Amino acid sequence: MKPLKGACIFGQSGGPTAVINASAAGVFLEAMKHDLITDIYGAEYGIKGVLNERLIDIRQEDVKELELLKNTPSSILGSVRYKLKPYSVDDSDYKRILEVFKKYNVRYFFYNGGNDSMDTCNKISKYLQSQNYECNIIGIPKTIDNDLYGTDHTPGYGSAARYVATTVMELFHDTHVYNTPMVCIVEVMGRNAGWLTGAAALASLKGFGPDLMYLPELPFDVDEFVSDVKKVLERKRHAFVVISEGIKDFSGKYISEYLVSLRRDSFGHAQLGGVATVLAGIISDELNHIKVRPIEFSLLQRCAAHIASGVDIEEAFNAGVMAVRFALQGHTDKMVVFKRDEKSEEYKISYELLDLEYCANTERKVPKSWIKPDRTGVTDDFIKYALPLIQGGNNAPYEDGLPRYAKLKKVFVKK
Amino acid sequence: MKPLKGACIFGQSGGPTAVINASAAGVFLEAMKHDLITDIYGAEYGIKGVLNERLIDIRQEDVKELELLKNTPSSILGSVRYKLKPYSVDDSDYKRILEVFKKYNVRYFFYNGGNDSMDTCNKISKYLQSQNYECNIIGIPKTIDNDLYGTDHTPGYGSAARYVATTVMELFHDTHVYNTPMVCIVEVMGRNAGWLTGAAALASLKGFGPDLMYLPELPFDVDEFVSDVKKVLERKRHAFVVISEGIKDFSGKYISEYLVSLRRDSFGHAQLGGVATVLAGIISDELNHIKVRPIEFSLLQRCAAHIASGVDIEEAFNAGVMAVRFALQGHTDKMVVFKRDEKSEEYKISYELLDLEYCANTERKVPKSWIKPDRTGVTDDFIKYALPLIQGGNNAPYEDGLPRYAKLKKVFVKK
To answer: Is B45 near chain A, with CB under 8 Å?
Structure first.
């Protein structure tokens, strides 16, 4: 079916990354090349920007600034964590979206996010189809957690992995300077998937990696952990530990839940963080007040554009470009996925499509065969997988010794 | 007096920085150029390496690896926090030092560190003079805290400041993505001087700086702080706060001491989080459970070589070079200091000497006139001072997408 002429809307959703704006740049700059696309809108705060009719007119932005989005961290349009109810339960949001889409003749909708955002895309697409409103909807993957189903990896992961590996190398140097025993416990993001925690192993390639790593894919036992640390300290003075924020006990309960009062975000996810500090306290108590330094990478790992991976920036940009091209070819209800050419010696990626249905709400975890049998590290397969994703750097322009980020005018369309 | 022919020892002391090894490179590479210097030794773990006769033979290292020290974070020889007793109280360490110096005919001693290390230098120098042992002793400044007396700034500060400014810019983007109120509290190192905390203001130059900053030079009042945050939130949705780890109340007591010590988790374990975490809890309680994100820069700020300042690397290297040259000119009992040419439009530094006596144990703080009258920020004078120090980057070679650090063979001399 020949695609319709009309406007496009692009929105950003979920937690930001160092390169999500690169995908925005890809969508905007590619959309400008095609006559079928009339207006180009950025939705403020994701799907909320559609519901509230807060649409930024991207055609009024300087192309130079849009190019700079490639090197600008976080979600320039604003993001949201908002879960649409099934329309069988409450269709008011869907009706509103259709109303806005009709008003602005929106025929292309691009949504950049993780599992939950793909669920949002999927629901909107299904609803619009049920109302016979033609609109091509393409999801663009994003998450530092790298846990999206059906894609070799996700934009955002490579940069966060590069941050983790580089910072672990630096911290390794810092925490080994004194001739006194010390334990360093670094906490890395990743609620249920250990991709980012595993990236610390890349530092081992250079000889400056962790002694112990704990991914959330396998159960975590506090006593075993204390014993692991003790064993390391029997053969060397310093123990360097990297743990995932999402480590769980044998019953599947988050370790952090033992001590931190459980909060949940609007998607129902537990809000984690702080488990390194808790474990540091335990190690200090159990190991005769040994010096322990807990370090949380916190938001730093997801917004560190200055050390973003060049491969990641390029792929995130291309994912945006390809989303537009696929939509203009008539595809809809799909997410852009990365396929790695497994036969090629060199790292090579192609961009394909996968049904949104498969992408939504399924978490892709680190294969258990990539985790060492003693649970305290990852295998060479993991390294082989992750290493190509952290290559190259961010060529952002600098001014006054500081990065020059994109500045958008953000002219909102009149309602 | 003509300097003697003999060996030199170089040691690193105190907390590491991103560029302390650049000073090591400066000392080693310069020392190799002069015939008066016979052996070149690196002391393992600072002065402890002299006491324990653990001396690394630097002439056995590859020059290429020594060059790479310019881009290698932390103290490659190992560091120490060891304060020599006055020799009137206990001269055993001094006797041992003299013994080792005599054994290896050490005529040049370079010690790289902060206030306490300059005190060590000074005591050793005075003792050796009292024993009529000729040895030229030059201190090389180092500290991210920038609190050394008598120098415009210290090597290590510029890189840490660049880390703080850049990371604050990134975090600013990350913490502003959602349309929901949020407070971010970043904790920066600096026990008694606010130089590094103040560097966050450089991010303001680009429009992405903190709303509130608290330096340790002025007393901190928790109620006032809560009221400051409230005021920010009355005019905008997000409040971005940067505090020094060393903020103190009106009686001079560290805020961290009386708040953090109270915190034990439900198992009775000590909570090792810093003052930002404690203040975050207070803000959450006082402001109706508003979302608060405490972030500690922790060790990251002092070892982030990947974002080191080019100016800082060069100056740290030159400080090492100049220490050797000054010593060979017959100077002793001095520290290398940086003098800024205040008349020059362009930033210009010259390397001079100052008596160790003045440098030891005196803390240089941010002038109160550079702190805004409402205590929540710094003035343009501060910006003008700090901005030249964060210029340029680290041109470290990369391998596999990761920095290539120096690898030393560390051949110890036979005792």
So the answer is: yes
Amino acid, single-letter form, for residue B297: F
Domain identity same for A81 and A64: yes
Give the integer Cα–Cα distance in Å for B318 and B323: 8
Query: What CATH number has the domain bearing residue A321?
Result: 3.40.50.450
Instruction: Count interface pairs A-B at CB distance under 8 A.
Output: 195
Closest by CA position to B147, among listed B213, B196, B82: B196
Separation of alpha carbons A43 and A199, rounded Å: 33
Same domain, yes or no, for A187 and A137?
no
Is A409 in CB contact (< 8 Å) with chain B? no
CA angle (B223, B226, B227) in 5-degree steps: 85
Two structure tokens written together for A348: 């090579």
What's the CA gap between A265 and B184, in Å, rounded?
18
Same domain, residue pair A211 and A318: no
Report which of A118, A206, A409, A163 is spatially closest to residue A302, judged by C-alpha positions.
A163
Same domain membership, residue A216 and residue A171? yes
On whether the CB atoms of residues B136 and B111 are closer than 8 A, the answer is: no
Would A376 be classed as within a structural domain?
Answer: no
Which candidate in A116, A119, A145, A312 is catalytic?
A: A145
Model pLDDT for residues B231-254, shown as the tens digit of each residue: 999 999 999 999 999 999 999 888
Q: Do B269 and A292 touch (CB under 8 A)?
A: no
A44 and A104 housed in the same domain: yes
Neighbours of A361 (CB within 10 A): 12
Q: Which of A196-200, A291-295, B93-97, B315-319 has the lowest mean pLDDT?
A: A291-295
The string of pLDDT tens digits covering residues B113-170 is 998 899 999 999 999 999 999 999 999 999 999 999 999 999 999 999 999 999 999 9
Q: Which of A258, A276, A302 is the last residue of a domain?
A: A302
Same domain, residue pair B212 and B297: yes
Interface predicted TM-score of the whole assembly (ipTM), two decimals: 0.96
- For residue A398, the distance in angstroms to the closest alpha carbon of chain B comes to 9
Residue A1 in domain: no
Q: Which of B403, B356, B339, B351 is nearest to B26 (CA)?
A: B351
- Does the distance separating the beta carbons of A80 and B179 come in below 8 Å? yes
Q: Which one of B165, B306, B387 has the shortest CB-CB distance to A307?
A: B306
Contact of A22 with A155, CB cutoff 8 Å: yes
* Residue from B287, B173, B275 nearest B232 by CA: B287
Using CB atoms, which residue from B45, B174, B300 is nearest to A16?
Answer: B174
Residue numbers of the domain that contains B355? 6-156+305-361+391-403
Least CB–CB distance from A401: residue in B300, B391, B404:
B391
Distance CA B375, CA B360 (A): 29
Q: A310 with A295, same domain?
A: no
AA letter at B13: S
Task: Give the end of a domain, one of A287, A302, A317.
Answer: A302
Q: Are strands B291-296 and B182-188 parallel, antiparallel or unpaired?
A: parallel
- Residue B181's CATH number: 3.40.50.460
Beta-carbon separation of A171 and B300 below 8 A: yes
Question: What is the total count of domains within chain A?
Answer: 2
* Residue range B11-24: mean pLDDT, rounded: 97
Prediction pTM value: 0.96
Q: Choosing from B145, B147, B312, B333, which is the catalytic residue?
A: B145
Predicted pLDDT at A191: 86
Catalytic annotation on B145?
yes
Whether B53 is in a domain gets the answer yes
Q: Are residue B203 and residue B137 in the same domain, yes or no? A: no
Q: Does B63 touch chain A (CB under 8 A)?
A: no
Is the CB of residue B80 less than 8 Å away from at least one CB of chain A? yes
As a whole number of angstroms, the distance between CA A136 and CA A128 comes to 10
B412 is a domain residue: no
Q: Which residues of A touch B392 (CB under 8 A)?
A: 401
For residue range A297-344, list pLDDT tens digits in order. Answer: 999 999 999 999 999 999 999 999 999 999 999 999 999 999 999 999
